[in-house]
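does this look right to u?? zinc ion version
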Amino acid sequence: MSNRDFKVSVTKLLSHPGEPLEVELAGLIGDQFVSSAWVEEGSTTHLSGSLEAVHSGVMFSGVAKVNIVTECRRCLCHSKADLVVEIRELFESDYKEDEGDTYPIHGEFVDLEEMVRDAVVLALPPAPLCKEECAGLCVTCGVDKNLVSCGHDNQGRDPRFSILDQLR
Ligand SMILES: [Zn+2]
Ligand SMILES: [Zn+2]
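got this back:
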């Protein structure tokens, strides 16, 4: 199903340069994830900012907000968090796909969804921790040492051979 929530008409913007267009949009951006973090299922992404006509097209600047879930890299517990991403991207009429760092203007409108998706994926934390001092899983018996003290001191064990890493 195509998502129309992030489409904005730029007709007026292009015919009246100098008058920025304020945008407040909300919609779903689908399953976006990196290995240990993802957009919470069904969470709406809110986008606010402005579009401005510039020499080569239309510039968006603003902020996207969405709920995410992160998986602690030490104890594997899941936490919810708010992701807030600042975005500033150019949309061009003579967009060339292989140049890659701008987005297309489709005739009379821009679709901000791809830009939002890209920004959110880039901002997802690559190696989250539930807390800085997370004790992680015991490399001997596998219990969550934040919850249980199993008595293993695991001294001399190379943490690279932990149960957690063997699962990866
Ligand atoms: Zn943890
Ligand atoms: Zn243990």
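Residues 32 and 118 are 9 Å apart (CA to CA). idk if thats expected tbh
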